[in-house]
Design brief:
This protein is mostly helical. The protein contains three helices and no strands.
């Protein structure tokens, strides 16, 4: 069963490579965000599969942290997208001088 888990984890990492093409290519910011969500979801699955293959129960804790970070990234994206759609401009960057 360990070999099966590792094989599925390798397949999921291949899907991440395909998703990377969508992040680079676009065409819209929402497409890029969905691809980034693929990274988060796939990362969680890979950690859980490799943790099961290695019989490491701490992998579930790592997967929970990844899930929290992925959901936080979506919230930040939606807030930024809403701000830009309402016509607000980002504040200018201040120089350290």
């Amino acid at each position: 069963m360990t070999d099966f888990y590792q094989l599925v984890a390798a397949f999921l990492l291949l899907t991440v490579l395909l998703g990377l093409w969508r992040v680079v290519r676009g065409p819209r910011p929402a497409d890029r965000m969905v691809a980034a969500q693929l990274f988060g979801t796939t990362g969680i699955a890979v950690v859980l599969l490799l943790g099961a293959a290695a019989e490491e129960p701490a992998a579930a804790d790592i997967a929970v942290v990844f899930a929290l970070l992925a959901s936080l990234a979506v919230v930040v994206f939606v807030r930024c997208a809403r701000r830009l759609s309402e016509g607000e401009r980002e504040p200018p960057e201040e120089s350290g001088r």
